[in-house]
Each structure stands twice: as C-alpha cells, then as structure tokens.
Amino acid sequence: MRIAIVSDIHGNRTAFEAVLADLKQTAPDVVLHGGDLASSGSAPAEIIDRIRDLGWRGVMGNTDEMLVRPEALEAFASQSPAPPALWDAIREIAEATRAALGAARLAWISRLPEVHTEPSRALVHASPEDLWRVPAAETRDAELEQVYGVLDRPTIVHGHTHIASIRRLAGGRLLLDTGSVGLPYDGDCRASYLLLENDLPSIRRVEYSVDAEIDALTTSGLPHSAWIEKMLRTASPQLP
Fold it and tell me: In terms of CB atoms within 10 Å, which of 24, 36, 69, 189 comes out highest?
C-alpha cells in the first residue's frame, strides 16, 4: 500500500501542479491532504476545486480555520510575541482569500475534520488538540508521546512547520512531518510531500518554477505578494 500525504499547499498553483505530475510517477494508491490549502498563493479557488475533484480526504489546517473562523486567528495573535504588522498582513491576505474562494468553497473548508485516522496511522495538521501549535523540533520523546500518544496509532503524520522530518520516538512510534508543497521553510525551494510505502516513510522533493509562481502571484493582486515572494525565494520564514 502506497500513500502520499500532501500538506501546506498555501494556494501555490505552480508547486501544486508539479506535485500532481510527480504523483503520476510515484502512483500512490491513496492521497491525503494535511490542510493549509489556500491562503497565501496565486490560486486559492483552483486549489480547493482540484482537491475536491480529486476526492482527497484530509484535515483542516490553521490557515483554513482562520478563513472560516476569524476569531481563531485573533485568539492566536493575541498571545503571540510576533509584531502587529505580521498579523495585519495575515488579516489582509485572509480577507482577500475569502473573497476569492466564495461561500461554497468556504463551506467545504468548514467541514474539514481536525483528525483523520486509519488503522495504522493518524493525520493532523499540527497537533491533535491544536491546529496552530506543534512541539519544537528539540522536544524530548517523552513530551512528544504526551502530545501525540492520544491518537493511539503507530504512525502519526502532521505538517504545519513547513520543514519535513522523519523521527522515530523511543517507544517506536513514527512521527512524520510532510514539509510544505507551497511554502517550504527549510532553505530548499522545492515542493515537499510524504510517501508511505507499507508504512515506510520517505520525503519527496519536487522542482518547480518559483519565478512562474511569483509572476502568477503578482498578477493575482493578492496583498503583500512581495512578502510572500521573499519566503518563496529564500524557502524561509520572513517578516512583512
């Protein structure tokens, strides 16, 4: 059984199309998505439509939640040490993305579950009880077990960090981070997704034209496209 988990597309049509082409080569039996589908890219509506048409099951991410429940963004921002300018930019991007998506797509997003479970694995966007927070990379195994052990599956998959990783905890549980299709933060501009072959994980990296996505982003008129361009070119988080 071969399963692909695709997460954190962030509306990046160019990266998404490259991953779809790669999926034809890897030929998974099932594709799941880990959320954060639409916000911050050139084609939020197209991404949602394609995923719906493909019939991929998946989970809600924090930027999906902020589109349908703006109060979730405000609750997180109120506790964040990040500068107010960051949250102002995110609010403006969210408003533009909502307008681009329309009511029917937003309703579809609102119905996404927060957890997807199968007999041997579970998928969440960040952590089981919080779409917005994930334990730091240096967190000890025992603490990770406290967070993810509630899912009671030998393999746990998440996204959110935009940094792909494969980690086996002391008790044997696999904790897997898909990385990001549309906005990697690990210094590698290529799109990232996860493959599970009979529950053996590997990270796929896929080349795509960052320049083409930036051109599409600029043409789309999305607010703060220069900020997103910086993140796409550096494959790292930046402030607006």
Answer: 36
